[in-house]
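request received
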Amino acid sequence: MQGVTRTRRPLVRSIAAFATVGAMVAAVAAVGGAVGWPRTSYPGYPTTLSAADIKLAAKYIGGTANKAATGSTITIGFINDSTGTPGFPENVQGAQVAVSFINNKLGGIKGHKLALHVCDALNTDGSACALAMVTAHVKLVLTGTMNTSNDSTMYETLFQAKIPIIQGNDLTSTDFSPPTTPYKGTAVTYMPGSPGVLYGMAKFLGTKGLGSKPTHVTVFYDQGDTGSQTAYNVFFKAGSPLQSKYLHGIAVNGIQINAPWSKSDVESALSSLPAGTILVPLVPVGTCISFAQALTALKIHNTVVTSGLCFGEQVKKALGNYPNGWYFGDYGINYFMYAKALATSQQLAVYIAAVDKYNKTIDYTGFAGPSFGTVLTATKLYIQAGGASATSAKLATLVQKFPGPQWGISGPMTCGHVSSLFFPAICGKYIGISQFKGGKWAPIQAAYNNKLINAFS
Amino acid sequence: MSSLAVRRIRLSSKQAPAIVGGLLAASWLVVLLTHHDQLQSTIFGIDTGALIAAVALSATLTYRGSGVVNFSVAAMAMYSSFIFYDLWQNGSLFFPPPIPSIQLVHVRYVAGSPIPPLPVWPVFAITIAICGVMGLLIHLLVFRPLRKAPPLAKVVASIGLYLVLFSIITVRFPGSSVLNFPSTLLPAGNWTFGTIIVPENQGMLVLAVIGVAAVLWAVFKFTRFGIATRAAAENERGALILGYNPDRLAAINWVLSMMLAGAFGILFATIQTTIDSLQMTLLIVPALAAALCGRFRSFPVVVLTALAFGGSQGWIQSLSTTSWAPSFFGYAGFSTVIPFAVIVIVLFLRGERLPSRGSDAALRMPKAVVPRRPVIGLVTCLIVLCVAAFLFEPAWRIALEVSACAAVMCASLTVLTGFMGQISLMQMTLGGISALVLSKFCDAHGIPFPFAAIIAAGAATVVGLVAAIPALRIRGVNLAVVTLAAAVVIESFVYNLPAFAAGFTPGSGINIAAPTLLGLTFGPESPYSKVLGHPPGALPDPWFAVFCGIVLVLVLLSVLWIRRSRLGRRMLAVRSNERAAAAAGVSVPLTKLTAFAISAFIAGLGGALFGYLSSGVNTQTLSSTGSLVLIAVAYLGGISMLEGAPISGLLFQAGIFAVFLSNILHISPEYAVYVAGIGLIFASINNQEGIAGSFRDTAALMRRRRQERVRVQASLPSAGGSA
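response:
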């Protein structure tokens, strides 16, 4: 939940309007500071799971607060690229935290225990995972992060078995445009996904999100990450529709990398770029670290706008803290700014507290959070479908018609709204941009200040 | 005034490449000195060049000391950096499974993060000592037993070692990377020369490797140890007579080599502060390229070439931002083309083998025996496969399909390596080329099965023939290096060309439609009618397994025909002795080209099968690492025998053996590569004919015993007979 139904327009047009609205904003800020939203500085998230947290989550899924599940087990499938380079094991970890939370504190699925049948797609191939799901007779499958560009077999297998899919933080074209022949099934993601974040970043740059429209942007995209490579081709490459809509007048340069890039690789690239270019690294976390180190070593202070791939405790371990001045694209809220009055932020607080209770060792700042939310949302739909008596067909209908939003994701959302842009599976729309500066996080265009970016408008 | 006589200058095959190389280097230097930004970018790449140089020096040391081209030396550099990290960060020393780690020092945690318990320099010293011990063990346990083995056995043993080291890290460190390697081993400042910045740690690394090369040059030129090593390399028997122990010399060189690789691996990681296991391990390609340029002899040439490779990566990066540079300059992976091109040009121009070691090696290649009743065997194999396809559970059925596809790929190595003795480390990437053509060309233009698969395999054949051109003048280990470099180029550069990359625009995926013939679709996802009581609609479609089995049998029948034909005999003759074969009237170049073409076509068919299996191009399987795993299992199964290919297919990753490990023994499939690597080392030492050879020998032994029993019984006087 977000309390925001549309994006506020930038404060321009006339001095009178500016003054009026400016006074209103000042008043809201003064009042909001007293209740925690909006604020100019934000505390970190509390880590204790409170009764209010449990009640909030139980209400969301339709469960029973403070009740442990004792009945027979209901299994949901979970397919994820856990091992390999890159691998995303945190998706499974976040999902398992959700399972523990649901079973111990939310009454399970109508009293039945929830379990995940996990399959590592990188290790066993997406199609083998799909077969494993069919053999295990699961009725609903969730995905974590899939980075293999040929998972159509996985979708076809699950669709043939009429098993609906709620996707997670997927990155590839097959995920956002799953095959519809010979079988048409249900596969959706309730998040904006990597296309949403990248569309939103392009819009942010082109609509003076940095204060003024840049003249030169350099995009670093990973050849191995299908999402970012094709995102570059669609969003930033000269002549693309987004280019003409938002990036007109901006010289966009693309540099393809083979992640992970080392610090010296980044230094080589930076030394030949025009001064003042905005740097947009769409790269995995290891290369993010190399970027930060190279910029520090060369004393380069260009503006950096990057994605949530650069979040992670590993960044703090390697660099001491997040890179100063960097802008990060996210789903409207982030892991470091707690605004109690903001419902999505409160949902994130529940997640962080659950991590502290059920598995302190995971890196909670990456994809684990959205996976936690996916499991909670899937549980909600399962309960609505009847719990143990739910059928795949009923679940498929509910999955398709879910009005949203997913737990922890800024809404609203509509499934099927971006079909004209080749992403029929994407339901989420809104993303945010936040900045880390002077040791603090601040929202630039985010849920915190009612400036969520509608990525697909 | 007297006229000047015109003198014709003749350059030897050694002088020409040196002069050309020198001119190119001088030209490059002039360009750099006149373009500041290009010079700066080049300088930023030299730390990678320093690590490449260290790995190349290590490879040169092991070659000079023991005659082994060590494909695992970059993996050793990578492995040592993980040992260092685990010891420094966690106070723990890890070992190959199943040996548990040892917690050497207790670690304190503050706010959930470990506080490194040990200072970096003592940890560095301990790690280097461990590397030395590992080098000694590798010599004693792996390469000393292979002293008299043919080059093929040594190559596969070092590949096995590569797989073992790589898989240990994959299992021990999920994600196979470290992102917070300590940076305090070397100073972090900058040296400034006018407007040029040289990071101090990178500069020191380069100076260190140059210093090491100088020391090695001096040792090998002036010290008794160095002279003895050179002597043993020329003539082992002569060295023995003079009182030198070649075995001890080899052991010392192995220890030094591993310590050198380990030290520079750690120092490189401390500059990068991140380690990626795969990226570091693949530096073996430019390292071997540099070592080849130095002919595995000249330390200075090795270092200069390696530094040039490293610098060229930064230079290419800089050029890609200019307006005149072609677009492919900016494609990641283009820098892998440079070492490959250098290898091919240098080796092709030189046209010589590596300086051979004067050892008493008994150059016995694996036997390439024709099976006794091959057709019956193949038909039996097909029947078993068909029955299994309809009876197996889905997980086993898909493993069966993977094994069948892999068996076809292994058959390509039977022809090329088993019969011809040519080592190719690019077969899976040839399959990848086939799969990409199948997707992007054949399917896109509606070309039906089976013509689509044949055209795709044809495309792989064309690429294979291009790879065969260097093979006309180079062979053995040199060819292994060339093909590995080609595999890395295909994986890093070709796979990611815009024409092949998947995209968000419609029709831009790399999907492959299921094969359809006469209205029947038999891809793994196609539903089928109820057969043998199996529920309808259960996937994968068993008929796809039958299809794979039929293709496998046809391929093996073709391989059998080749073996029995004149072509097969020519191949074996060339494998045994090229000069003798040429003297006997065999056209060695034509035979090689034919073998490469056939092998590449079979690999292309295998790639098409993998493509149908995945309904797309799985670039993770059809990769350079996949090619190494392929030759590992092919050797284990029996690389020179017809029956070796199906056995090898069972051992391939995600095949029957992997499912057996996970479903029956409850061992993670991640260990499959580890087990394959150890098995490969064992097979190269003890059983060059592989599992198939063992079966054959056992069957032959049983036959002989049976015949002996019959003979004995026949010779006994019959009971109740007349006196």
